[in-house]
Prior knowledge:
The complex is a heterodimer.
Chain A: E1 5-8, H1 14-21, E2 28-35, E3 39-40, E4 43-52, H2 54-71, E5 76-82, E6 84-86, E7 91-99, H3 102-119, E8 122-128, E9 131-134
Parallel strand pairs in A: 1-5
Antiparallel strand pairs in A: 2-7, 3-4, 4-6, 4-8, 5-7, 8-9
Helix pairs in contact in A: 2-3
Chain B: E1 9-14, H1 16-22, E2 26-30, E3 34-35, H2 36-46, E4 56-59, E5 62-64, E6 69-70, E7 75-79
Parallel strand pairs in B: 1-7
Antiparallel strand pairs in B: 1-2, 3-6, 4-5, 4-7
Amino acid sequence: MDKRYEVTDSPLDPGRYIAMVTRPEAGAVATFTGHVREWTKGRRTLSLAYEAYVPMAERMLETIAEEVKVKWPEAEVAVGHRIGPLAISDIAVVVAVSTPHRHSSYEANSFIMERIKEDVPIWKKEIQEDGEWWKGEEAQ
Amino acid sequence: MVERGGSTMIQVLYFASMKEASGLASERIKWQGGTLGEVMEKVTDLHPSISWDGVRAALNEEFCSGAQEVEPGDTVAFIPPVSGG
């Protein structure tokens, strides 16, 4: 059985998460994939490394899916987040949301990404040309 | 609270910048009971170079406040500002 809320060091296949939320009642599946970006404000990223508190991160993803169910009762959610070393353009996160109609799938998907960035214990280390640091702690 | 398995230790987990500052991913600390705030004081004594800026804590995988009681057998994780996604 596939895990609906998953933190993994394996490459992410968006199709797996789409398949987990696809069902006859759902006319819409909104899928977000977050990728490793090379250029941020003129600084070049060489690669990224993600770390997570895996059991808590997976529980938090499930909690966020429960919040989605309160706001959008007809939504079904699957989320995968990758950890470990990633290269430019690799997929770091997949969020798939199915709903009967499209508007709520977009809204719920965006809500999930915001909540991930607030509360899910996952950390990104940027390896750039001039050094490496944990995101959120770099000198701006 | 029931003391789990007669343990007299807590497990403390460090991540990201805190792991680098402490030089450890985890350690066991002798614990008779007290608040999370007291755990943080103990950790500061053990690792003076740790920065607590923006750090939250989780007790047994749930976010919690400094007033929370920590029992022997518990797991405390320190959560620096997260940056997933």
